[in-house]
Amino acid sequence: MSDARAGLTRRQAHERDLRRRSLLIAGGSTLAVILAIVFLVPLAPGWERVQQSFFNAEVFARTFPKLLNAFLLDVAIFAWSAPLIAALGLAVALARDVRNPVLYPLRLFGTVYTDIFRGVPVVLVVYLIGFGIPGLGLPRPWNSPYIWGTVALVLTYSAYVAEIFRSGIESVHQSQRNAALSLGLSGGDSMRYVVLPQAIRRVIPAQMNMLIALQKDVALLSFIGPVEIFRQAGVFKSLLANFTPYVVAACIFLVITVPATRLADHLIARQNRARS
Amino acid sequence: MKLRLDNVQKSFGATRVLDGISLDVAKGEMVCLIGASGSGKSTLLRCINLLEPLDDGAIWLDGEDIAEPALDPQPIRQRIGIVFQSFNLFPHMTAVENVMLAPRRVRKETREALRPEVTALFDRFGLADRMGHYPDQLSGGQQQRVAIIRALAMRPEIMLFDEITSALDPELVGEVLQVLKALKEDGMTMILATHEMAFARDVADRVCVLDHGRIIEEGPPAQVFTAPREARTRAFLSRVLQPV
Ligand SMILES: Nc1ncnc2c1ncn2[C@@H]1O[C@H](COP(=O)(O)OP(=O)(O)O)[C@@H](O)[C@H]1O
Ligand SMILES: [Mg+2]
After folding, report:
1. Domains of chain B, start order
2. Closest to B90 (Cβ–Cβ): which among A176, A181, A186?
3. Which of B81, B82, B105 has its CB closest to that of A185?
4. Would you say the CB of residue B213 lies under 6 angstroms from ligand 1?
5. Is A16 found in the same domain as A67?
6. Mutate to test the interface with A, among B83, B89, B92, B136 (most CBs of A within 10 A)
7. Measured distance CA(A210)–CA(A214) in Å, rounded
8. Residues A80 and A124 reside in one and the same domain
9. Does a structural domain hold residue A2?
10. Which helix H or strand E contains B20, and what residues bound it?
């Protein structure tokens, strides 16, 4: 009778009850786990030491501003690398798609390029390019680790991004291309105005995941010089003989990457729904 | 003479799909291709539009052999419009953008210059209020009419239609066939692959029956439908005219 007063149908009332019950159970079990961690972990014999060296509030407060500042360098490197990667990745994807036999070398180049750079760990490319090319004794500013570190990231990530673009291009049905050609459009215009816009839309979620990975991999440049957040955390670690700066760095990364990951997942889920 | 096919041959691998097709189409004529599924109707239309290269034979368009393999197909495709069974509108563009894309890119005309002609086409085929809609906001019949307008906007000399009503719900077929009738009254030269036998009988100037890549019979619809000479034509017609 109370349900009738709330203006709910029997089914709606039933579903509301189910929702309430599952919310209660989920909340209760989560609380239990958190309580267990909070009360049980400190009972471990080494907890005192771990807390001192990893979760030191004083060190956290002291190093946070500087680390946040160093993170801006990560963001900057990310910000200028991402457009370069998008452009080069798209160019390689298109090179791999050319049908004209005259341009076969371009196609071969695209294939070899993606094979090589997808086959080598990012950190190796960063080392080889970041140490190797400045080692040629180039004059300033051409010996900057920023430039060659960026080049290493751009080369590696473009290979992955190109493959994603290419899968998008292939997912656009041949009939779309034929419809464009049948109207008298050139092959280039058919690609540019008909196939690519659809292909790019389809791969946006996958490319967002590449962006998240890139944001994290910027930290690899620390190996060749730039004092970005990971390297700065290392400096603090040595200075203060404490690992908390690494935890700070991890937290700062998470603040950026978790929302981005949720967004990418949301986009993927929406796309899957739209397709089914 | 507008279009002349001369011994057109096409194979996919070892399967011979077009086995020596010869056909004359006069200016303003409407020719219907009928025949069982797989008899080669779609392939023939795609060959005329140069979406598929011929293996052998010639296609004469106003005295020029457009099947010449060394020829650039692009300017020829502009003269021959084709509409497909599955519409194939560009889903990321509105109806009017679909229609304007080719004239803008190929003839280098501006949207403003195109607007009167394009608006008139949408108007004429009852879609004046749908120009800004995306394909997925349109019914199948509306999408197919937009596809026809898109082809017409290139001002083709010949239009090819490949079973353009086969993907439509029955109640939407009429509005699309209406468009074809209007085009015929304009004097458009047309080749239709179709399963709409009643329409072919009433409107076509000539009917060609395809069977295994050959034209086994052709003539005015009255003759082909009421007094077919070939046993295979009779068998085909009895299958499609009395289903079950
Ligand atoms: N791209 C292709 N590759 C291989 N075989 C094809 C291709 N297109 C059509 N065919 C074959 O050619 C034959 C004729 O097909 P089609 O022209 O579509 O016939 P219709 O339109 O009369 O149904 C069929 O046997 C079909 O399987
Ligand atoms: Mg067909």
Report:
1. 3-86+156-241 (3.40.50.300)
2. A176
3. B105
4. no
5. no
6. B92
7. 6
8. yes
9. no
10. strand B15-25
Nearest residue in chain B measured CA to CA from A182: B77
The enclosing domain of A143 has a CATH number of: 1.10.3720.10
Whether A22 and A119 map to the same domain: the answer is no
Nearest-angstrom CA–CA distance, B29 and B32? 10
A200-259 pLDDT per residue, tens: 999 998 999 999 999 999 999 888 888 888 889 999 999 988 899 999 999 998 998 888
State the ipTM, two decimals: 0.93
Tell me the C-alpha distance between B169 and B141, whole Å: 8
The percent of residues above 90 in pLDDT, for chain B, comes to: 89
Find chain A residues with C-beta within 8 A of B81's C-beta: 182-183
Counted domains in chain A: 2
Beta strand pairing call for B189-193 and B30-35? parallel
Residues A151 and A220 in one domain: yes
What pLDDT, on a 0 to 100 scale, did the predictor assign at position A222?
Answer: 87
B42 CB near ligand 1 (under 6 Å): yes
Task: Examine residue A121 and state whether it is found in any structural domain, yes or no.
Answer: yes
Q: In what order do the strands lie in the sheet with B3-12?
A: B15-25, B3-12, B56-61, B64-65
DSSP 8-state assignment for residue B33: E
pLDDT (tens digit, 9 = 90+) per residue, B107-125? 999 999 999 999 999 999 9
φ/ψ bin of B215: left (φ > 0), alpha (ψ from -120 to 50), beta (otherwise): beta
- DSSP lists the bridge partners of residue B215 as B210
Full residue range of the structural domain in which residue A25 is found: 10-43
What's the pLDDT tens digit per position in B182-203?
A: 999 999 999 999 999 999 999 9
A23 lies in the same domain as A135 = no
Instruction: Say which amino acid occupies A118.
Output: R
Angle between helices B140-152 and B95-106 (to 10 degrees): 20
Question: Which carries the bigger pLDDT value, residue A205 or residue B95?
Answer: B95
Residue A190 included in any domain: yes
Q: Which residue has the higher pLDDT, B40 or A3?
A: B40
**DSSP letter string, A49-93:** HHHHHHS-HHHHHHHHHHHHHHHHHHHHHHHHHHHHHHHHHHHHH
B189 closest CA partner among B83, B80, B30, B46:
B30
Interface size between A and B, measured as CB pairs under 8 A? 59
Answer yes or no: do A141 and A28 share one domain.
no
CB atoms within 10 A of CB B243: 5
Q: What are phi and psi of B121, to 5 degrees?
A: -65, -45
In a domain, A52, yes or no: no
The Cα-based distances of A43 to A29, A51, A57, A247, B71 in angstroms read 21, 12, 20, 22, 83
| Tens of pLDDT, residues A161-190 | 999 999 999 999 999 999 999 999 999 999
Residues A15 and A96 in one domain: no
Tell me, yes or no, whether A34 and A111 share the same domain. no
